[in-house]
Specification:
Layout (H helix, E strand, L loop, with lengths): L12 H22 L4 H15 L12 E4 L3 E7 L5 E5 L4 E5 L2 E4 L2 E7 L2 H52 L1
Antiparallel strand pairs: 1-2, 2-6, 3-4, 5-6
Helix pairs in contact: 1-2, 1-3, 2-3
């Protein structure tokens, strides 16, 4: 599975990460079935599967905002990787955070009504929400990637033992 960005479209973070972890473990099992090789090569396969299946956290830089004024709206462009629906995190749950944005390649677009003070307040609120969500997801994704590597190693050890025993 080659999902390299955290993409959430109504799928809760936990379900998505669990599904990705299961894909990685399945890939390892499939590779183990094909192999009759030494431990070093098997360890390299584990690293390769981890690299292929680990998830990159979403990144966004709001110092690069570009603004365009039109008649009654202001449009803000913001460099971004991810999707048009993020997740808002709470201590006991995660829910989708709907933002007034349009996804374009590598950018998100905020379209706000043209009352300057109102625009600034709304934009600050959205950027603060994006920052919080981005940071929370980054921590979750880093934990997922670390856990994925540990699980792959443990599963790899068990599979390698089975392969070795079959070789006798």
């Amino acid at each position: 599975m080659r999902d390299k960005f955290v993409i959430f479209n109504g799928v809760s973070c936990e379900c998505y990460l669990n599904r990705m972890r299961n894909y990685a473990l399945r890939d390892l099992k499939d590779e183990a079935k094909k192999m009759r090789t030494g431990l070093k090569k098997f360890s390299e396969v584990i690293e390769e599967i981890h690299e292929k299946n680990k998830i990159e956290p979403l990144e966004f830089l709001y110092e690069e905002i570009k603004k365009i004024d039109k008649k009654d709206v202001a449009i803000f462009y913001l460099k971004f990787t991810g999707n048009d629906e993020l997740l808002e995190t709470f201590p006991d749950s995660i829910k989708p955070l709907k933002l007034p944005i349009i996804k374009k390649e590598g950018e998100i677009v905020f379209v706000l009504k043209k009352n300057k003070i109102d625009i600034n307040l709304k934009l600050k609120k959205y950027l603060k929400n994006l920052q919080e969500v981005s940071e929370a997801l980054k921590i979750k994704v880093e934990k997922h990637n670390k856990d994925l590597l540990e699980r792959l190693k443990k599963k790899g050890e068990r599979l390698y033992e089975k392969i070795s025993l079959r070789g006798w």
